[in-house]
Write a structure and sequence with these properties.
The protein is 28% helix and 19% strand. It comes from Liquidambar formosana (Formosan gum). Keywords: Iron, Metal-binding, Oxidoreductase.
Length: 333
């Protein structure tokens, strides 16, 4: 349902793997090394003891499920996504589709307040939940980015985190809902199927049998373009990653191709915070990451330039290749 990428994830090679788990309450000297190793080998990792209050997470999940449980006509009041707002099946502007409905929000407080009026019957409650969640995950993102910089031996460990705390940061929050498969014999269509995880735990977990393995695309193969993505999902699986840009680390860390499948009889909710720089910010490697022996692989460019290229291409297209340094003059700059 989504255009094939240059290096698609082959279904026959899909294997279950255990992602690295980073305990942020462990010794300060250990976390930077573990994060760098996880980024080099997987591009994904799980974080525990992260400090994001559980009540803030639950409030955000409750508001999300409450919105997606509304009739279609009510949800459409918050759309169409252009790019912000409510979207269903259509992803972006180039014809990509998937079995997903979503809310895309700018993290600017004023924008959240205005959008909430078309999203919720209680705009202040929704706006408060979103703002609290964004503040908490932004603080976590800053901590991870600073640990990452430390693990890379970058002298200025706040070189990345400063970009996402800038008042003009282009960070986003995307709430994704993947409905249950229509052909699942044990599909849960009751109102309780659209409840936060702490409510779902009281429900009977259905056995999907072979239907649960259907590879229907919820959100097709892609790489997140931002600096860092923090993903929270409920207890329903569906994320697949491909083990392989990397501008700010000069190719040392690579943004991993991944996709989401609607392979469950339960509704899947994911909340993704995309930590991004301001539009005017220049994207280039810190001095420690580019040396005469390992010159810059990419020419400097602004985040606005990259976003323009991103919106001109399909979901699975390679965008970073457009910015690769082509000659000695570009590398020297």
């Amino acid at each position: 349902m989504v255009v094939a990428s240059p290096t698609p994830i082959p279904n026959e090679k899909i294997q279950a793997v255990e992602l690295p788990v980073i305990d942020l309450s462990s010794k300060r000297s250990e976390a930077p090394k573990l994060i760098v190793k996880a980024c080099e080998e997987y591009g994904f990792f799980m974080v525990i003891n992260h400090g994001v209050p559980q009540d803030i997470i639950e409030r955000m999940e409750e508001e999300s499920f409450s919105f997606f449980a509304k009739p279609v006509s009510e949800k459409q009041r918050a759309g169409p996504a252009n790019p912000f707002g409510y979207g269903c099946k259509n992803i972006g502007f180039k014809g990509d589709t998937g079995e997903v409905e979503y809310l895309l929000l700018n993290t600017n407080p004023l924008s959240i307040s205005q959008r909430s009026k078309t999203i919720s019957n209680d705009p202040e409650k929704f706006s408060s939940a979103v703002s609290s969640y964004i503040q908490a995950v932004r603080e976590l993102a800053c901590e991870i980015l600073e640990l990452m910089a430390e693990g890379l031996w970058v002298t200025d460990t706040s070189v990345l985190s400063r970009l996402i705390t800038d008042v003009d940061s282009d960070s986003l929050l995307r709430l994704n809902h993947y409905p249950p498969l229509k052909d699942c014999r044990d599909r849960d269509t009751s109102p309780s199927s659209l409840q936060p995880p702490h409510h779902q735990q009281q429900q009977h977990h259905q056995n999907c049998n072979s239907n649960g393995n259907s590879n229907k695309i919820g959100f097709g193969e892609h790489c997140d373009p931002q600096i860092l993505t923090l993903l929270r999902s409920n207890d329903v699986g569906g994320l697949q990653i491909s083990i392989e840009d990397g501008v700010m680390t000069n190719g040392r860390f690579v943004s991993v191709r991944h996709r989401a499948l609607t392979n469950s009889c339960k509704s899947r909710l994911s909340m993704a915070y995309f930590a991004a720089p301001p539009l005017h910010a220049w994207i280039t490697s810190p001095p420690e990451m580019a040396t005469p022996h390992r010159p810059s692989l990419y020419r400097p460019f602004t985040w606005a330039e990259y976003k323009k290229a991103m919106y001109s291409l399909r979901l699975g297209d390679n965008r970073l290749e457009l910015f690769r340094a082509r000659n000695d003059e570009e590398i020297a700059s």
